[in-house]
Amino acid sequence: MKHKNQVFDNLLDLIGHTPLIKLNKIASKFKGNFYAKVESFNPGHSSKDRIALYIIEQAEKKGILTPGDTIIETTSGNTGFSIAMVSIIKGYDCVLAVSSKSSADKIDMLKTMGAKVYVCPAHVSADDPRSYYQVAKRLHEEIKGSVYINQYFNKLNIDAHYNSTGPEIWKQTEGKITHLVACSGTGGTISGTAKYLKEQNPNIKVIGVDAFGSVIKKYHETREFDEKEIYPYRIEGLGKNLIPTATDFDVIDEFVKVTDEESAHTARLIAKSEGLFVGYTSGAAMQAIMQLGEDGEFKKEDNIVIIFPDHGSRYMSKVYSDKWMNEQGFFDSKNEAAAQNIQYIK
Ligand code: PMP
Q1: What is the top EC class of this enzyme, as a single word (predicted)?
Q2: CB 3.0–4.6 Å: which of 17, 47, 239, 275 could bond 39 by disulfide?
């Protein structure tokens, strides 16, 4: 547990125990009490610190990893950063295969954290040899003594959240949580957290957030992998063009889809209304709340927990860049002018 005046042996002791913060303004037009689990308070600024530490420590316990070994992963950035951070402290080499959709900031950060980075094309199928999955697999075969974290297909990803995020939320809400709303990428966060929470109270409603252009929502509803659902979208870390086994579809009650544009505006609104500078998928999760709220999902006595997975600083060249927003056409349909809050004195 974190204590204010405590000295820590290293950063790893600070992973988890993130705050649950009441949202006082952004959803005030809806019934219910809304709380954000703000994962940017982890030392690596995202929820992925939890899985990096947990999976690496499980491998150590099994004797698979010893200092000097190499850890390999595919990642949109956050998991890579967390693995690189844990690797530095524990003495491993870190090799990452990332999607070209990842922001330049994220790739620069990974390199700064000592990782060797392979940037792979985003819009190729998962079985294409250029995809980041295939590149990681090949590197794992080539590098002796390497461990492949494989977060999309590793059940330990679920266990990490079952053992930390779930119990934390249960304690923080004193068991009064009624809804959990979380983005689904690998599905580890929502599945592990939901599994723990539903074991405490099976009536808790678990709502996943998916992107238009992803197969996850349809798979949940029909158990059909429909390739026709797939098209490029901009939000990083949310939705998928494959079905991850790190998602336990049985503990999720429903999925809501959100657009790139509305999620981007909602991310900006979280900052302006709550003072919380969080990432693009936090905007997506909050956008799902807006849609559910409009549909009358919530009652006055409900306690809704929304997971905000990472920090806004990772999106300065995207959602928080007026130039990027303009390029996407995101300012066209909204009245938020790019220059609204800035004046140039000449
Ligand atoms: N948001 C961001 C920014 C992410 O990087 C991820 C992970 N891909 C998620 C949300 C989704 O978390 P999970 O993989 O546990 O479903």
Answers
A1: transferase
A2: 47
Contact 147, 65 (CB under 8 A): yes
Any atom of ligand 1 within 6 Å of the Cβ of 189: yes
- Residue ID of nearest Cα to ligand 1 atom 10: 237
- Which atom number of ligand 1 is nearest to the Cα of residue 76? 5
User: What's the 47 CA to ligand 1 centre distance in angstroms?
Assistant: 8
Given a contact cutoff of 8 angstroms between Cβ atoms, the answer to whether 47 and 295 are in contact is no
DSSP letters along 214-231, please? Answer: -SHHHHHHHS---GGG--
| Residues assigned a catalytic role | 48
pLDDT (tens digit per residue) in 211-266: 999 999 999 999 999 999 999 899 988 998 889 999 999 999 999 999 999 999 99
Segment 290-314, tens digit of pLDDT? 999 999 999 999 999 999 999 999 8
Query: Does residue 246 line the site of ligand 1, with CB under 6 A?
Result: no
Amino acid letter at 241?
N
**Cα–Cα separations (whole angstroms), residue 37 to 16, 233, 276, 290:** 11, 25, 11, 17
User: Worst-scoring range by mean pLDDT, 120-124, 252-256, 282-286?
Assistant: 120-124
